[in-house]
Write a structure and sequence with these properties.
heterodimer, A: alpha+beta, three-stranded antiparallel beta sheet, 5 helices, 3 strands, 18% strand, globular, B: alpha/beta, 42% helix
Amino acid sequence: MPKQKLNPLPSAAFQILLALAGEDLHGYGIMRRVAAQTDGRMRLGPGTLYSSIQTLLEAKLIEEVDTREDAKLGGERRRYYRLTSAGRKLARAEAERLADLLRVARSRKILRGEYV
Amino acid sequence: MSEKIYAWLLRLYPSRFREAYGDEALQLFRDRSRDERGFFSRVRLWLDLLGDLALSLPMEYFRVQPEVIRSSARLSSKNGPSFLVLANQPLGAGALLSGSALSLAALITFSVLLNHGVRPVPLSALIHPTSGVVNESSSHFSPSTPRVADNTEAGAGASTSQEQPTIASTSSQWANGEASDAQSRPPKQQSQQPEGTTNPAGRDARFDKAECERVIEAAVANLKEHYIDPAIAQKMEEALLSHENAGDYDTITDGAAFATLLTRQLRDVSHDMHLEVVYSKTPLPERSTGPSPERFALYRKAMEQHNCTFEKVEITTHNIGYLKLNSFPDPSICESTAKTAMASLNHADALIFDLRDNRGGYPSMVMLIAAYLFDHPEYMYNPGDMTERSWTQSPVPGNRLADKPVYVLTSARTFSGAEHFSYDLKMLKRATLVGETTGGATDVGVFHRIDDHFGMGIRETRAINPYSEPDWAVTGVGPDVKVKAADALQTAMKLAESKLAKK
């Protein structure tokens, strides 16, 4: 079931996978990273964020690492998430699929080569 | 404050989600509201949250729980009946309570709607003042009023009762001099023939003081029992008794004169023109009997021979429709004739109903024809009837006459049902009446037999007259344009032409 839910991969889930590619993050961290990597276009709300996290956890594309405080955000304990190898593989597959799309778009002169 | 609101909104999510991520979601909200300050950021934050809510709520509710998938996989491998338990805790008291309350509310709503919501309320229940009006031991009769006697050309003023099987209250009145077209009349129903004062044969040797006392006693008893207003019944009783004590009746030796005098005295007190004492030389039947099939067959034959008394139906000059109708015949025989006649006038620019020789008939035919003159159901007051039958069945499909000018020609011999038609159209300002004051014949009372020769008619329904003017009983309907009956058609044609010319 989770497989079907992630095929095609929702953009929110893909953005979360990308956000976790560099480092382990807690929920708010993921949200800020996604906002940054989309120039603020995608601001994940709590419902969408944790719903996606739940789905990705069930599909074992990410995992919970531990619960600790974030020094920058004060005394609250936060749950951190990490990309699994399966998640990394899927993110790469998705990126390649997008790259293929991009090549098609270029060949159809919809995008100019240098630009992206 | 805003965190509380968001905490409350979070409760909309399924408990599974709240248990797993509720705290984190709230934490994220706190982080964002701490970092995003200023009016616009706040607005954006709340827009994000609401949009997120709308998107993710359905997603969460449609999410299939992994336990179910696992257990259904397990189940499919087994044989025999099995079931799943989704909740691993028993239902809480709150869930049970709200569940029962909701089912109870649904049940109550459903039964209330079933009892009150869908039952159509008949109009008659709203306007019918009394029920069970028809008196078993009585028959309907047509009054012979002094006024009618004076106005009819025949002068005899005698009338014949005609009881109708389907309509309990109104019948037409016939003058004795009309014997020549007896074929076109509805059948005479019974032998009751009250004699007018002008008939010398009306002198009855058997009328004496004892009879006088008996009649007064019975009249008083009938009024007490049947009159709609007990206070007025009491006054009438006192009046009759004081006349009796004063010896006013001692000189009367004639039954018909006695009936006329009593009628006048009762009307002086009650001002009820539907109240009447009648005298019949021939003995009144013990009980009323319905019209015999033979008489009905005769009537049917007469109607078929005379085009249902639709004497003339034509379009005259200036596209004015002219209908000469000499009675309002029984729709069970004449409905199609009436509809054909009205349809043939459908494209007229104005209508003239010639009722100068119309002696009345069936109220249902009055209503059938009147329906063509309105584009909505209209209340046609009828003193004898007060049911949904008093509303026209308008609009008539395909009818174009609802807004055309209407003229009704009347004479002193326009009676009963024809007066019903004229009176209501005049009161509704739907027609211009041209001609003479009508005969003033109504037949709406219930007949109470007193003895072999005397009876009285008492109206027992109090149909509401919506108009300030009293109905046509005795006084008749006055015309809007008073001309001799013979000149009425010419006058109406001129009126119609000038009205159409103005358009």
